[in-house]
Amino acid sequence: MFLRKKCRYGSRKLQFLLLLLMLGFLLLMVTTLNPPPSNQSKEGTFQPVEFNLREGNRMDFVETQELLDAQEESQQYYPLDGLSPFISLREDELIAAVVVSPTGRRNHSKARKGYRVVGQPGRRSEGRAGGDPEPQLLPLPLRDGQGAARGERPLGLDTHGFNEALSERVSLRRELPEVRHPLCLQQEYDSSLPTASVIICFHDEAWSTLLRTVHSIMDTAPKASLKDIILVDDLSQQGPLKSALSEYISKLDGVKLIRSNKRLGVIRGRMLGAARATGDVLVFMDSHCECQKGWLEPLLARLSSNRNSVISPVIDVIDWKTFQYYHSVGLHRGVFDWKLDFHWEPVPEHEEKVRQSPISPIRSPVVAGAVVAMDRHYFQNTGAYDSDMAMWGAENLELSIRTWLCGGSVEIIPCSRVGHVYRNHFPRAFSYEDAIVRNKIRIAETWLGSFKENFYKHDPVAFLISKAEKPDCSERLQLQKRLGCRNFRWFLSNVYPELSQPKDPKDTPKFSGKLYNTGVGFCADYRPGRASAEGSIELSPCSDSLTQNFEYNSMKEIRLGSAPLFCFDVRHGKVIPQNCTKDPDKSQQQWDVQENGMIVHIPSGKCIEAEKSEDEMDLVLCVCNKNANQMWQFEHSHVLRQR
Question: Contacts for 132-136 with beta carbons within 8 Å, 24 or more apart?
Fold first, then answer.
């Protein structure tokens, strides 16, 4: 009996131990899969915490962290420091986020209008009692190739579009060669210059180029003039840009880090940074730049005397492969073509004549988007950036054109120089071609007026998108009316008349317009497909649609409009649209438009013929026999103009 009771007791004890082991194992699994947020370390290292402001979460932070809380002001952002609100900034675009601040200077007792900063008082860092020490330059936390073992792709050319491996070996605080005009070195600036907030939006930027940009600003800008540097992390995914970057930034005086909790793009990211800026002047800068000595003072001096200006430094080139600094010897200005593509061109003679000295400001139709500065009041009151633009691209054109049309001016300041890394190519993470086209459509529909047809003729894809997806530009049109802006014809007459002037005769097409077939009485018509390779060329009743606008040029190409996008090509004996090739020797896109009306395919020697069937009418290649279906006429001939 005693033995039986003892066995029962032993089995229950064994069951209890097994139950404890199972509970321990489950607890271990839960902890592994859902780790609790780590606390602030004694050294002040910040570990990011994911949160959702929409759920009304309230968190306590120590002194190196701030949180933008916008949940109580549900529908409207109020003026900042007495300014009028952002015209195009809505609450859902101010994604309020984590802000890493180095010094713990906070005015939590003073509620800011529009949002307030909440936080938990923390002890002051002991190491900073006697002043801010020189920050230690940290190496890249995850060196190139170290992550390969964990399945991470090494940083390099494919990731960033430049030689990031070499950039790692370049000092974060290198001294650039002096390239300013000698007269710039003689300039003296007032001690009462306005202050500046530099805003840098980045997404998965290389560690070295991002921090070289930050240190370049800090080392070259006067402390009295530099209010702060605001980094806006646009949902970066690379490991080094998370907790390691937060720790690094916490050691830099005057640098703040805002982390967005969803992808914004450069345009909205810059607007988020601008909403947090307190400097008199906003300077928007790309995250792969280096500043020359004395770059900031000329910008601030110009804006102090002309607040209704959008200005830019001279943008020098940092070679993507070697990271050598190349300065432009001659002065250039920013321009654009009818496709709304940005270009540089030498300052024309008529503009040089109105400049008083070699260092006088340069009137520019547009400025590049890499570095641009303007008065904070002016930026807010004239509409900021167009927040309905997507990701990035063409925002500099919209800002510049709007500034000119609405009473301001756009200038390049020769004594201010900043280097910029122009990528060898845009990596997939930064490639938003559709977004850029849609941004251009918004510019055309808002600011070009009747001249938007010129844009659509040069960019047929934009025309097709605009018809399928009519953009809502009502908000910007109301802004245009409220500001009393001029029309685009004034811009062409007073700012950039070269845009409307005829081009070089060699660039003029030989024939253009509708391509009419005399046999069937219809015109060639481009029919887009879901993808560019799925489009077709068919015959349709003639109309004024831009899909029937073709050009025959000196390269012997028949293009859809003047855009180097789709050209007549051949597949299985049928004429189809294909991307225009850059190698004419290997091309099936060479045509001879003859005076007798036949269009001969040069590689095969056959002629384009209209083939009519029950369901459709196609363009096919047949042996040339001069029948009526092989006779074509372009709407316009430019042969006489070329002679």
Answer: 132/103, 132/253, 135/248, 135/251, 135/252, 135/253, 136/251
